Amino acid sequence: MSCKILDFIMPPITYLGSTIFSAIFTLLAILNPNKTIHSLGIKTLLTLAISSFISRLVKESVNRIRPFIKISNLNIKKIGIDEYSFPSGHTTAAFSIAVTSSLFYPNIAIAGIVLASCVGVSRIYLGVHYPTDVLAGTFLGSITSFLVFHII
Asked: Where is the Phosphatidic acid phosphatase type 2/haloperoxidase domain (predicted)?
């Protein structure tokens, strides 16, 4: 699948699940003087740390080769990636942020989940993940967010 508009839009969207975006979001929230936003930052930090750790363990255990390596004819765009694809770390991070934010601010839940879903779709579109990688990242980020929000 190839579309000039998506070729332009998907690379920036994919970076909404990046380490840099996650760190900036979390840092700005933690430094915010508003107690609710500060608490959001702390819980987001915990969620990202736990979900990223689990994601890394699973990635290194499963060792799933990325789609663009196995499937020829993919419309790939060169973006920074690590070696393995399962689960999607960008999707895990995007859902960790979106679900945690949605638990603090339910009125933004739909927008946050849609945006996180776009990150997952971008990963598939760019040829760096299979749909199951993205589903696993969605599950991991969401479950970790719920557990951190309700337990910690």
From this structure: 40-149
List the one residue out of 60, 42, 51 whose CA is nearest residue 19.
Answer: 51
β-pair partners for 65 = 84
User: What pLDDT sits at residue 135?
Assistant: 97
Distance CA 74, CA 57 (A): 28
**Number of CB atoms found within 10 A of residue 12's CB:** 9
- Please give the C-alpha separations between residue 67 and each of 36, 52, 112, 142, in angstroms, as whole numbers: 41, 21, 27, 24
Mean pLDDT estimate for the chain: 90
* pTM (two decimals): 0.89
Domain that holds residue 128: 8-151
150 token code pair:
């309700």
User: How many domains, the chain?
Assistant: 1
